[in-house]
Design a protein that fits this description.
By secondary structure, the chain is α/β, with parallel strands linked by helices. It has one domain: Metallo-beta-lactamase, Chain A. It has 8 helices and 14 strands. The strands form 2 sheets. It has a 7-stranded mixed sheet with strand order 6-5-4-3-2-1-14. The chain has a 7-stranded mixed sheet with strand order 7-8-9-10-11-12-13. Strand 11, helix 7 and strand 12 form a beta-alpha-beta unit. The radius of gyration is 17 Å and the shape is globular.
Length: 255
């Protein structure tokens, strides 16, 4: 199984428009972050987590030619704004794109993309979607079992996902104990860490480290980072040996 970090930045990306801080001015490519998304390749299937505003660019950079399914974590714009670009995969496969999301996310997508989901607007060339409504219980994508993990983004419910020994969690600041049970025995944990200072709806660096220490995955990677986190190289030096900052384009092979 291969995990690819397509984007590791927060909703504004890094650099932030008009910002002159040292992170936004950094020439280190690891400090340049597209909006958060990731991809798992397993058993001839390619599963993508979220389609943010940079989805097209991410697919081109990763040279992705086929996507088996898209799993949405939640409905915020920085996680759904690139949905229109799935039509490139429709053209290649001649099939609708399977998406998996909660009813709440589905309703939001129908409002955001009325021309996709309302038959009266249908015409050749628009994205074709096969919507699959999921709940907080395991489901199958191709022949792969996916386990949702319910987390909280302040008051908004968000799904993380576990596939075999890899778990992907973004936009969270609280995980209930019953859901943490699903995160035991991981080889790789991916979790959001927005910045050093506390935030109302995201784990900060200290909280993310505490969570990683509690869950004891073999390796933890932080994602969904803002320019307020600091420079990649500086923060890496502060982290425990089994915790790292992810960066755009990072590929992890899990056996």
């Amino acid at each position: 199984m291969k995990l690819t970090f397509l984007g590791t930045g927060t909703s504004q990306g890094v650099p932030v428009i008009g910002c002159e801080c040292e992170v936004c001015q950094s020439e280190d490519t690891k400090d340049q972050r597209l909006r958060t998304a990731a991809m798992i390749e397993l058993n001839q299937s390619t599963i993508v987590f979220d389609t943010g505003p940079d989805f097209r660019q991410q697919m081109l950079l990763a040279k992705v030619k086929e996507v088996s399914a898209i799993l949405f974590t939640h409905e915020h714009k920085d996680h759904v704004a690139g949905l229109d670009d799935v039509r490139a995969f429709n053209f290649r496969s001649k099939l609708p794109m399977p998406i998996y999301c909660t009813e709440q996310v589905h309703e939001s997508l129908k409002q955001e993309y009325k021309y996709i989901f309302d038959d009266q607007y249908s015409y050749p060339g628009i994205p074709k979607i096969q919507a699959n409504i999921i709940q907080n219980k395991p489901f199958i994508v191709d022949d792969i079992e996916v386990l949702p993990i319910q987390v909280w983004h302040y008051k908004l419910p968000v799904f993380g996902y576990r596939i075999k020994d890899v778990a992907y969690i973004t936009d969270a600041n609280r995980i209930e104990e019953t859901e943490k049970e699903k995160l035991k025995g991981l080889k790789v944990l991916v979790v959001n860490a927005l910045r050093k200072e506390e935030h109302i709806s995201h784990f900060n660096l200290k909280q993310a480290i505490e969570l990683a220490t509690e869950l004891q995955a073999e390796q933890t990677y932080f994602t969904h980072m803002s320019h307020l986190m600091g420079k990649h190289a500086s923060i890496e030096d502060e982290l425990p040996p089994n915790i790292s900052l992810a960066y755009d384009g990072l590929e992890i092979c899990i056996r």
